[in-house]
Fold:
Amino acid sequence: MFDLDEDLAYFVSKKIKVSLSFSNLTYRIPLKGKGGVKKRGFKSTCCGGDRGGEPYVEQHKVILDDLSADVPAGRLVAVMGPTGCGKTSLINALAGRLEAGGEVYGEVLVNGQPRGKSYRALVAYVMQDDVLFPNLTVQETFEFAARMRLPKKVSNASKMKLVDTIINELGLSKARNTRIGNAMYRGVSGGERKRTNIGIELLSGASLIFLDEPTSGLDAFQAMNVMESLWTLSTSGRTIITTIHQPRSSIFKMFDLLLLLSEGRTMYYGPAKDAVKFFSDAHFECPVNFNPADFFLDVVSMDYRNEDAEEASRERIRLVAELFASVRPTFEGGIQKQHRLSIDGCDDCTDLNVVVFPNNPFTEFGLLLRRAWKQQSRDILPIAITVVQTVVVGFILAAIYSDMGSSATPVQDELGILFFVCIFSAFGAMFQALNTFPTDRAVVNRERASKMYHVLPYYVARFICDMPTRVGQGLLFGCIVYWIVGLNPAASAFFIFCALLIVEGLAAQGFGICISAVCPNEKVAFAIAPAITIVLILVGGFYVNQDAIPVWISWLKYVSHLYWAYMGLTINDFAGRTGWETCLNIVNGTCIATVETSGDEVLARLGFDPDHLWLAFVVLIGLMVFYNSMGYLFLRLSKPKTMPIANERPKKT
Ligand SMILES: Nc1ncnc2c1ncn2[C@@H]1O[C@H](COP(=O)(O)OP(=O)(O)O)[C@@H](O)[C@H]1O
Ligand SMILES: [Mg+2]
Structure:
């Protein structure tokens, strides 16, 4: 089906062939509350002998119960079973992506060896709900994946040809120039998004592909197309393990092997074509002209409609499990032989511990920069919000303080406006980071789980693409406010004013990313970031006299971008100038006696040295680097926690 040209064919044939085996794989989750729950039990091989239908106290929910199977290289394996039987958990466990929280035991071997560091790079994993960048078109999403995932030795033309082939194969040609979209604005349909997800994983050239319900949400024709593509890939040597929900019979025929689960236990594992015979030997006769996949599900599904039906179905499932356990060696003999053959035939299996990224960090950076630029420049809403916010706030501020340049002004007013400017710039940049970073993080976490690229090139590319917004906002706000309000009339002072706002914005943005990366989700980040910023505002030098701040908290001002920006702006505005009034006596809220004050006196009162403008810049740049480095570090560390598989069997519960 895929018309691979020469260098691509070379690349595919050079791929390591992967056979997989797992044994005694058990995954269980502690039940909440003391003493567990009362539940009827089964005979279980893993967790404590015959519990034959008697009520017992269970402390764990067993999701995968002592599963074992060998999967020879180049096979298409279907994992089937009723909803909630553990299909997704099994795929996650095999792909090394079970989220921390439960216990997982057993052994998973790749080509007869434990999974090494490079395992994630060998594996492609299509989750049920994957996240994509909403502002890229289908074509662009594919092109990025092809450039990023296929090695340099595959020519660009071949990469683009493969993109075309996969787009056509998956029936996406009509949608190729449509943006992916999200909840805010419509893009491609759900089915098209799903196919895009599958396509970008197919592009990876991975040797072992896991898919979780790739056909759900597709119509019968598209489902067939997707499965045909997977079948073709398996015939070219890839090992493919996919969960599937209600496949039609023509799809079912494509599977080499079938793993049928119910309640986390194996009901059948063997050649898909022999499953009907197994069930008929067990006196579950599949009617003629009946889709075997539907029939198997009917047999192994629990029926919870009433107690009798539940008991009957539980008994039926127990019977099937026992029958299969007794005939298992007959079914597995052939598979094990093929499995051993594929391990012995594997000549490239020693480098499982070497992680190889397809591109060098500079190429990664170039590709990520292009993608980030497209994504951000098309994300009109945040840009529009920034512009409207800046213009509206700028003009309101300018209207309130528009006469400051024309007469002697109270010092406090001018300090107030400068501090307000600092707060506005800090909040704007921080909220933008809080808004946009979570989508980025979801995509990046998925892509780095596949070892597609390093995090640093991604972070630097994102930072660079954020620059224009920060620079634009600083200049726009400066242009509106500066001259109308009438701050220091020297032209250089205007540019310094804008530059300080820009650097402060970049620091605040790093601060936002830091908080976003460290918080478990968006809501927590949105609650915490403004709260911390308010504390930084308090120690920032305007609202509270610096001497009044307790020592144990006063150090905070040194890490407050607001403090340093305020210091820079006041020095820029006041140093070496005169003409302000300070109020000496207030009666009934009106100032009745004033004295003229020089700018240097104002700075002295604030504790700022007029020669320290450079210091404000240096520290702000330092904070920008610091917050962004921390943001990068937290992003690196905050990848979803997954569990390694312990090689011990679980103890009795
Ligand atoms: N982290 C978890 N915590 C609690 N229950 C879980 C967790 N993961 C899975 N389960 C439960 O395990 C069972 C199997 O889940 P899953 O593997 O998603 O099933 P399937 O994909 O077959 O529908 C379900 O009953 C599900 O609720
Ligand atoms: Mg599932």
